[in-house]
Amino acid sequence: DAGVIQSPRHEVTEMGQEVTLRCKPISGHNSLFWYRQTMMRGLELLIYFNNNVPIDDSGMPEDRFSAKMPNASFSTLKIQPSEPRDSAVYFCASSLTSGEQYFGPGTRLTVT
Amino acid sequence: GESVGLHLPTLSVQEGDNSIINCAYSNSASDYFIWYKQESGKGPQFIIDIRSNMDKRQGQRVTVLLNKTVKHLSLQIAATQPGDSAVYFCAENTNAGKSTFGDGTTLTVKP
Questions:
Q1: Per CB distance under 8 Å, which residues of A are interface residues toward B?
Q2: pLDDT over 60 (residue B4)
Q3: Are A18 and A80 in contact (CB under 8 A)?
Q4: What is the mean pLDDT of residues B81-104?
Q5: Residue A47: exposed, middle, or buried by beta-carbon count in 10 A (0-12, 13-18, 19+)?
Q6: Are the beta carbons of A54 and A45 closer than 8 angstroms?
Q7: Cβ <8 Å between A33 and B99
Q8: Rounded to an integer, what distance in angstroms lies between the CA atom of residue A101 and that of residue B46?
Q9: Is residue B42 a contact partner of residue A93, using CB atoms and an 8 Å limit?
Q10: What are the respective helix, strand and coil percentages of chain B, to the nearest 5?
Q11: What is the pLDDT of residue B100?
Q12: Nearest-CA distance from B18 to chain A in Å?
């Protein structure tokens, strides 16, 4: 298996633009997680899905952030409009329920 | 509220020495704990896990100890190597597989 796949690996955009991050989880995993990592706040859980259904989105910063999981093999995290303070590395991870998580390589987002 | 925290943000050891990384957790209902290693430019990687019905688990060069009485978790790395240099996170699994991560400890191995 190729592991968790994220795209793009790097994204540079201007403030106010829409940003869409993509994730393909490991085949057979039924849980998917979106995290944000910064030096100031560390690793933060934004949202997680179980069997394609959002279970906990309490970590989503504000209404500018949204996440979808239309099927078991694909998820998106969208920021609209983006702001400089959204600059961070965004990780997607997948797991079997209650198991260890497998992280993707991350997307480094820079908003200028 | 629930939190997982690391006692030491940085740890520096000589190559060949043993390393011990500590972690405190606050949710006594948690029943599954995981250690992850994050190398520069990569996502966290699973190292070893332990369930609450155990107090020790060993892997290859790594051992995790769990003390539920004081809600403490530790990761021991034997014969630390330069390739062990990374940030180490403990994570506490709550319901439905959600993990709460600690702040991380940076391990630096000096040759």
A1: 4, 31, 33, 42-43, 45, 48, 50, 55-56, 91, 93, 95-106
A2: no
A3: yes
A4: 86
A5: buried
A6: no
A7: yes
A8: 7
A9: no
A10: 5, 55, 40
A11: 86
A12: 25
